[in-house]
Amino acid sequence: MHSFQDLILTLSQYWTAQGCVLQQPYDLEVGAGTMHPETFLRVLGPEPWNVVYVQPSRRPADARYGENPFRLGKHYQLQVLLKPSPAGVQALYVQSLEAMGIDLSLHDLRFEEDNWEAPTLGAWGVGWQVMLDGMEITQFTYFQQAGGLALDPVSAEITYGLERITMFLGRKRSLYEIDWVPGGVTYGQVRHQDEVEFSRYYFELADVEFLRTQFDGNEREAVRCLEAELALPAYECALKCSHLFNVLDARGAVSVTERVGLIKRVRRLSVACAKVYVARREQLGYPLLAAKPGEPGHLAEPSRPGEETT
Amino acid sequence: MPRGEFLLEVRCEEIPARMVRRATQDLGSRIFQELLNRKLTPREIETGFTPRRLAVALKGIPGREQDRTEEIVGPPASIAFDDHGKPTKAGEGFARRCGIEARDLERVKTPKGEYAAAVVTTEGRPTLEVLSELAPKAIAELNWAKVMTWGRGVGPWARPVHGIVAVFEGEIVPFELFGIQSGATTCGHPVLSPKAFQVAGFASYRKKLGKLGIEVNFEERLSKLEVGLSDAAAELGGIVVDDQPLLERLTAMCGTPGVVVGKIDEKHLELPREVLIASLRDHQSAFTVEREGELLPAFLTLMDRADDPEGFVRRGNEWVVEARLEDAAFFFGEDRKKTLAEHAAGLGRLSFHEKLGSYADKTERIVELCKFICRLLDWDDEAQTAAEVARLMKGDLVSEMVREFTSLQGIMGGVYARAEGLDEEVWRSIYEQYMPQGTADSIASTRVGRVVGLADRIDSVVGVLGIGLTPSGSKDPFGVRRAAQGVVRIALEGEMELDLDLVAARAYKQYGDRLEESAEEVLAIWRPFLFDRIRHILGLEDFSYDEIEAALEVGATNLPDLRARVAAIHTVRDEPGFRSVVLAAKRIANILKGVPEQELRADLLSEPAEKLLYQSYQKLRDEIKKAEHEKRYEECLRTMTSFADVLDHFFVEVLVMDENPDVRNNRVALLQAIQRSLSRTAGLTAVVVERADATEGKQGNG
Known about the structure:
- The structure holds 2 protein chains of 2 kinds.
- Chain A is of the alpha+beta class.
- Chain A has 8 helices and 9 strands.
- The radius of gyration of chain A is 20 Å and the shape is globular.
- Chain B has 5 domains: 145 residues, no CATH class; 55 residues; 119 residues, no CATH class; 199 residues, Hypothetical protein af1432 (Orthogonal Bundle), CATH 1.10.3210; 124 residues, Isoleucyl-tRNA Synthetase, Domain 1 (Orthogonal Bundle).
- Chain B is 50% helix and 14% strand.
- Chain B contains 26 helices and 20 strands.
- Chain B has a 5-stranded antiparallel β-sheet with strand order 2-3-1-9-10, with helices on one face. A 4-stranded antiparallel β-sheet of chain B has the order 15-17-18-16.
């Protein structure tokens, strides 16, 4: 199983079988699967939540005109969020690799410390990069804080870098050579033009003044939404600001001092969104608390290898 | 089921390599200490760990605590007993509070009279019971660099805990921690050998894990791996490029370590050696192999399994290394499209610190500070080159290569400067700007390299302290201590005769209005860090503590000069008479403590002994002044030594505290003048000498 779409299908199937809600990508430009409200907002507060989705993630500064075999301005993450983190979450993850057809009795799997921090989200977590035969295939994080709020329960976030994994399993020399469809169209055929055009846009064409105006406008709009206690619309505006900042940065339009200021402005918005969201969920009586184990979104506690008995 | 043995194992998710070794030792010593406090001292302690388990075995622990008997003195006998010697209500109450029968109360005689007393015996508890209290506490209270919580707010600990083995003499020590019940069951590798099994003691524990290929003893693993790596390198016809920190990190990361040998495409050997090594080390945690100083097209790394039956692990690592080196070659090519000066022109976009400006700002400051330093040193020949190097030295920070491999900062700039054909003095000074990196590292080999290294560090330290980011405890995020260490070593070993306070003051001024603390405050925070490093570094040179303190009292921040003073004290202190002059100096200091400055008038001197002292003093003053000026510090100290007899004579013959205030003040003034001269070379009073007329010779190592 070395095609891009098979990987998506397999992992989605595996995690839905574990009780995850199958969500879809957020319909905005975001830098990572973490920024999807299904992660960033759902990790807040007491309600349980288990979800899986693919999120196209934009990193304008990493765009390379489709010329670098290892870097992309947009890549695809498969994101799993388990809240609260089940005791057997690591074992569940290991089984997902086996579901992908990796016989772990023949490979080297290691969890190396890699802590995560997102200044624009006021968020950090503790965890690992998961290495398979020396290749980083997953980010594994126990969320400790988001939107400046300490988290209880704690969520486990598993982020698979889909291109990397497919490329690695297929031993391809370039991202663009991976099969999107088994034996059919390649990743390059699907996405190369996208990379080239957006590289030109991010680095050469993007209108700095227009982007700045958009940033300011979205920030104002976010504040208005927050005043009306509309957490989700406000958060969308914050996400737009975050992406606009990334484009401005890639365009080389952000000076050192301004950079710090812009990051702070985005962070202020996300922190405020988190607060309003939490308050709103409380007003609503935390609807997801009532969902019962066994129903979609609830994970049966798995057994971890080696821990069946004491 | 070994007698007196306690085995504790905590199984958990992968603990970061940087924390796990210390944590295991910490766990062992905490439990040891707790047992010691209860007089249950273990005879022996062994610890071991893998990324997923911390194991501690304490042996030879007594089976139970000793019984304790104590006498509790209560109310006076007249209150506790009635006329017939029967306990009163008060006596009964006291007995009840002590947990004994009233009839068992005793009478004790005290200096205050006769009192009732209760002799209470507390039975010692079984060790098993004691352990079930202290073990969970010791586990929970471990110090971690970073902790987390998991699930429904369980923790905090380094990573989620999955199982606990706690067995004393083969019996389970029961307790619950993080929702987990302790037991006697463990398991092997989560994927390769997950089956659970029972353990009774440390020997069987190690044996059973050993059968699964898991070695918990770190040193054992380390030495096996060293052998494995050098065997693999020998097979390739070379030796491993030594990297002890990497070896230790990998050993901590693997419980079942095996060696992976991978090939590198020959064409990548065209990359600079530094880049190859950094790429393999930083990205792949891999060692390089060399023969006669040339890298071979191969790498070695570790896997957390003994073998690689299908070659998947090797091929996986090779694939990643190939991708990484392709990447590195791409960066190298991209970077070379610009000169280092052109890279440096982009430093305005790289922030040094939010409040301290960009690296372009920093570069400007370093350039000016270098000129200033060269002026202070009279290093005219170096001034221009230092300024040129300073303009280029941070340029590599915006190169693709350094963004990817931060460990190559400085080195990469040097490599690019070399490739551009710049003078060796220039590229080498850029290359070596961050030296010394650690205690084993030497300082930059060129004078220019030392000047720019010093300027860079002092600029950083002054800036960081100037915005109030003083390091506290173990926290030093901006590396002030390390920078101080670098400054001291560069100035000392580079024989840079300059006043560091002046350099720091200049660095402060260059920040303009960016800094929040005053210049005086910054210097006041900076000096203790500097002095702390000076004490440490000179201490390593076999100078004793008091010699260093004595020299530091002069307050010199000219380090080679400071060192010369320390060395002079070290040499002269054993010579006859030195002890006397130190004692005299201490005596003078005592007399003058808190006494205001007085004016010396030669015409008021009357006693022959004080006249003699005055004459000798004038000679002393001039000689010391001259020798000081020429930095002949041993001679200064010897001159002082020769003065001891006159001083002693004075103290025998003359009473300083004369009844006549004019005479008294004049004598005080004379002593004050003498004190000034005696304090020029070093704070003599800080030198430790024995007061009694014991044997002359080197004394007191502080």
